[in-house]
Amino acid sequence: MQAEGYKVKTSTKGEGHMGDRRDRQNTRYLKLSDYVILAMLAAMGIASKVIIVPLAQVITGPLFIPGGVVAGGFFMMFIILGTAITGKLGAALLMSLVQAVLVTITGTFGSHGAASLLTYTFPGLAVEVWFFLSRHRGCCPVCCFIGGMVANVAGTVAVNLAIFNLSLIPLLLSMAVAALSGGLGGLVASSIARNLKKLEIL
């Protein structure tokens, strides 16, 4: 009887380890539902440019900086939101790659031609580097704020290298404005993600 009890105990322990390993794998890799959410957010980010960028140009025009510097804060919010909802590495980069391909193929508003592969992908890559080094996954307002800053500044630098070639002073001004608007976008993304989780929608 004691031997049988011992066998049951060790078997249960082994199953527990297997279950823990499966849980870790499930939290590490993107699931089908994650891909659906990220695709929707990527499409929403592209669609928002049609409305947001013209409005931002009214503000940035007199300052001689691109309208995307301010609008990017709203645009990058979707990239941060994707990571905050899924909590997984690779979400931001995947979204930026999808956006780059869609914009390049369709030639929609905000397209930079073949340079879109750089200008859209670079912010997602920068966000992935930040989350990897910080070991955060869009889990708090601070990491989302910094993630938004990193994404928008990276996008501003990429667009400047590919298209605008601004001089030093306008470039520094653009980066400062991009950091502020990107950080605010990250805070909005964090707030949305936390509210969705509280409501148990996702």
CATH class of the largest domain: Mainly Alpha
What is the average per-residue confidence, as pLDDT, rounded to a whole number? 81
Shape: globular
> Oligomerization state of this entry?
single chain
Uncertain parts:
1-12, 14-25
Gap from first CA to last CA:
47 Å
CATH topology of the largest domain: Arp2/3 complex 21 kDa subunit ARPC3
Main β-sheet description? none
**What is the string of SSEs from the N terminus onward?**
HHHHHHHH
Beta content: under 5%
Rg: 21 Å
Q: In percent, how helical is the residue content?
A: over 70%
Number of strands: 0
Tally of domains: 2
Give a description of the structure.
By secondary structure, the protein is mostly helical. It contains eight helices and no strands. It starts with a helix and ends with a helix. Helix content is 81%, strand content 0%. The longest helix has 31 residues. α3 packs across α4 and α3 packs across α7. It folds into two domains: 30 residues; 167 residues, Arp2/3 complex 21 kDa subunit ARPC3 (Orthogonal Bundle).
List keywords for this structure.
8 helices, 81% helix, Arp2/3 complex 21 kDa subunit ARPC3, 202 residues, mainly alpha
Question: Which helices and strands occur, and which strands form pairs?
Answer:
Blueprint (H helix, E strand, L loop, with lengths): L1 H27 L3 H29 L7 H19 L4 H16 L9 H4 L1 H14 L6 H24 L3 H31 L4
Question: Briefly, what is this?
Answer:
The chain is mainly α and 202 residues long.
